Amino acid sequence: MEKQDRRVLTVDELMAWAANSPNAVRLQNARDALPGGLSAAMVPVLVGWGASRISADDGHYVLLTLNAGGNPVAGTTVLCSAKIPAQGVESVDFVLVPLDRLGKRALIAHAMLRFVFKKGHEIELLTGAGVGAGGDPRIPDLILSWEAWRPPGVPYDALKGLDPRAFDLTLRAYAGAQRFLEDAVHQREWYAYTLQLPGGRKALNELLHVGLILGDSIARRSLDRLLQQAEARWRQEVPPTGANRAEQDSQWTKLREVLNSAQVPDEPLPGDAGIGYQTLQRSCLTMALHMIDVTVERLRAAGDTDAAKRKRLQLGPMEMADWMEELAHADPLGIFLRAPFALWWLVRHQEVLPRNAIKQLEDAGLLRRHGDEIVVNHYNLGGTTPYGEVYDYLIR
């Protein structure tokens, strides 16, 4: 496929999106960007709080940016709006996706949370499924995945990510099967550890609540910064007078008002350096653990006696070591000179490694067991998937 020229979404397009447009948005992964340059396909969780009804018996969140389609081979993403049941979670898996060849003992892995909903309480697509024309709007599971938000076509660089200003932090939401497909294209496998939190299903629904609040609040702060920068550049480039100047100026104002109209509670973030992604302090792994830890602490504060007995999860030091940011910008000699500091730090803080994350969850009693064994399911495209055997439902 030819390299695509960058296309930045216009203010009018962003307004249609932010105003809860009923249309699904199909994006080119390697081309489409938001003002400010970050990938439109990687846009974070955004909750339509005004349309959500969390406290009702049949409470729900309205999620505006669910990745529920597209084709990873063709490089497209389809973002839809969906209704997420607030009390419908049946189970949650802590999913490790090894990026090396060591399987569940991986030293390098992606981590994310998979929320599985009770039958009859599935996610309901509000756009993009042909609802009313025979389409099936139901999705059984939701993946919440913390990632480094970067421009279209730019690969992730762990070394560069040691600088917390290099990448923004984004919590992406996927239909489970869509994320599994994207990982399968990369020949990646899933190791899914079933969580067992104090408080049972109430805690699992609280974990969903914590994740959506965290992801949405960080998204709004990041988007507000991006729009401020983009608006400042626009004002410099567009003549101060003209027929369209006042109208466009009004659109920028409206867009920022829509973005900031939902005041959601602040939640603490690990680390001491803003809200950017950081390879060791605020990675996919540490943020997934942070969501779990915050949830258990909220249960503890609410008087749950079982939660009060659980060990706190260790996310690593909250202060950045000087060598981290230096290493992100070092030349080969600088990397060589700082490597001993990095190795010594990792020896002392092995809690940031994937295999130790599982041990932490086990030691805190937060993983389900079957007898003496931790419950873990191994999924891959050539064997069993979370949805059964692939060849049972492929059209062939």
Rg: 21 Å
Tell me about the largest β-sheet: 11 strands, mixed
* Low-confidence segments: none
Would you list the SSEs in sequence order as H and E? EHEEEEEEEEEEHEHHHHHHHEEEEE
Distance between the termini: 26 Å
Name the structural class: alpha+beta
Count of separate DSSP helical elements:
9
Question: Can you give a write-up of this model?
Answer:
The chain is of the alpha+beta class and 396 residues long. The chain has helices at residues 11-18, 176-185, 201-237, 245-260, 284-301, 305-308, 322-328, 332-348, 354-363, and strands spanning 7-8, 25-28, 32-33, 60-71, 76-85, 89-98, 109-117, 123-125, 138-139, 141-149, 168-175, 190-194, 369-370, 373-374, 376-379, 384-385, 388-389. The protein has nine helices and 17 strands. A hairpin with a 4-residue loop joins strand 4 and strand 5 (76-85). The longest helix is centred in the middle third of the chain and has 37 residues, at 201-237. The mean pLDDT is 83.
Descriptive tags:
two-stranded parallel sheet, 22% strand, 396 residues, alpha+beta
